[in-house]
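User: Let's play a game. I give you a shape written as tokens, and you guess the letters that built it. Ready? Here's round one.
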């Protein structure tokens, strides 16, 4: 393997959808293609950018890739944000074509009053409402994990849902809230892990006066193991003050393991520190950041974060004291949204945050066997977009491993694009592309 091998590859890229409306999916952690490859989930909104309010509506639906990429709106939601959308995801373990997403409800008796989720059956057009908003559904579609998005709105506004009026006061580490387990067939739920139990698990002094929350909850392919980031801070308005731990646990709450902790001194807590001086992406590029963990398989986790004094893409074995391996030491040198191909773990799809000078972001594939990085394109983003309304690429794989889908604003609209990477990954069966396909290196 040579040092810093990077190749540029021109790949077919086409925009999905036409007209004046805007489309996006949100996060990188799940495919928005259905199992057949025909339907591509997306939210539709009338604007590229807006401050989110509890009344702002997003359409919920999909593009039919077998019907001239026509968009079909199948519902609406006001429980969404620009980063994660409404947590749209296919339920592959259920019969037919079914997907789930978050909504606001009139149910004031639920554990999180006013919030829930819906399952939409594409084949029967039936909608079934569930009492909790989900963060992620298990691959077997038997259960989902749920959190309070009102807490996230206070601790990490970018991924939360707001309410009318001022934010409510939140206890720092309550014993009656945390990660909830919800059965997707019955809607029954119970508390899986409380914030108090997380604070008491290998406690740190920095936790004592901090507010706690969880994010990046992910379930392994076998639906038998859960990972999440436990975060805490005394200054929610300054993300560089966030502290992080990577933890795994069984779906019944047993066998909790601490894989990494980036607790560190925080000079930002000084009274004279100015959080407004922190750049939009300084937090994402922090040397202490643990972010974007995802299962490679049932027992290994890829993540950007520090280990033994160095920050890299790291591959963790899911065991305390297990092997931790640096991935792409001289090639993958900054934070990104990474996922492995669903058909060949040789291929890692990821991106970068915008370059401070050019506002360009790189989309790339990394070859785990050769160590070669294939840059697929460079996409401009408006530097005036803030943390809460930015548009990360958030690349997602198609089910056959031949294509990637991204969100982007490089054409001054928030839209989705599909890139054909089949000639790089060597899976064959190149997908025919529409007339608006462009071969590109930079936008």
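Assistant: Ready! My guess for every position:
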């Amino acid at each position: 393997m040579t040092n810093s091998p990077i190749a540029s590859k021109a790949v077919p890229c086409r925009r999905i959808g036409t007209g004046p409306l805007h489309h996006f999916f949100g996060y990188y952690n799940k495919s928005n293609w259905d199992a057949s490859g025909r339907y591509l989930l997306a939210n539709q909104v009338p604007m590229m950018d807006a401050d989110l309010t509890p009344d702002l509506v997003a359409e919920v639906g999909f593009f039919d890739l077998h019907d001239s990429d026509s968009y079909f709106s199948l519902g609406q939601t006001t429980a969404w944000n620009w980063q994660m959308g409404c947590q749209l995801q296919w339920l592959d373990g259920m019969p037919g074509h079914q997907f789930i997403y978050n909504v606001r409800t009139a149910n004031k008796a639920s554990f999180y009053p006013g919030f829930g989720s819906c399952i939409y059956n594409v084949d029967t057009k039936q909608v079934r409402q569930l009492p909790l908003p989900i963060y992620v559904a298990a691959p077997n579609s038997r259960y989902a994990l749920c959190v309070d998005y009102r807490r996230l709105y206070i601790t990490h506004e970018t991924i939360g849902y707001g309410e009318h009026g001022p934010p409510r006061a939140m206890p720092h580490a309550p014993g009656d809230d945390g990660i909830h387990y919800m059965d997707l067939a019955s809607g029954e739920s119970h508390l899986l892990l409380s914030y108090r139990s997380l604070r008491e698990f290998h406690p740190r002094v920095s936790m004592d006066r901090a507010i706690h929350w969880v994010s990046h909850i992910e379930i392994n392919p076998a639906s038998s193991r859960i990972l999440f980031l436990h975060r805490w801070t005394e200054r929610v308005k300054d993300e560089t003050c966030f502290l992080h731990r990577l933890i795994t646990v069984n779906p019944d709450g047993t066998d909790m393991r601490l894989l990494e902790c980036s607790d560190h001194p925080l000079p930002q807590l000084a009274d004279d520190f100015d959080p407004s001086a922190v750049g939009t992406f300084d937090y994402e590029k922090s040397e202490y950041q643990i972010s974007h963990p995802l299962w490679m398989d049932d027992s290994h986790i890829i993540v950007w974060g520090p280990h033994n004094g160095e920050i890299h893409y790291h591959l963790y074995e899911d065991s305390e004291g297990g092997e931790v391996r640096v991935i792409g030491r001289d090639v993958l040198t900054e934070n990104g949204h990474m996922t492995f191909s669903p058909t060949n773990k040789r291929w890692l799809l990821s991106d970068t945050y915008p370059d401070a000078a050019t506002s360009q972001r790189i989309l790339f594939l990394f070859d785990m066997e050769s160590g070669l990085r294939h840059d697929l394109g460079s996409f401009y983003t408006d530097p005036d977009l803030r943390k809460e309304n930015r548009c990360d690429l958030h690349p997602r794989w198609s089910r056959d491993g031949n294509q990637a889908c991204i969100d982007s604003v490089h054409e001054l609209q928030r839209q989705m694009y599909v890139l054909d990477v089949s000639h790089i990954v060597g899976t064959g069966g190149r997908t025919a592309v529409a007339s608006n396909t462009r071969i590109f290196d930079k936008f």
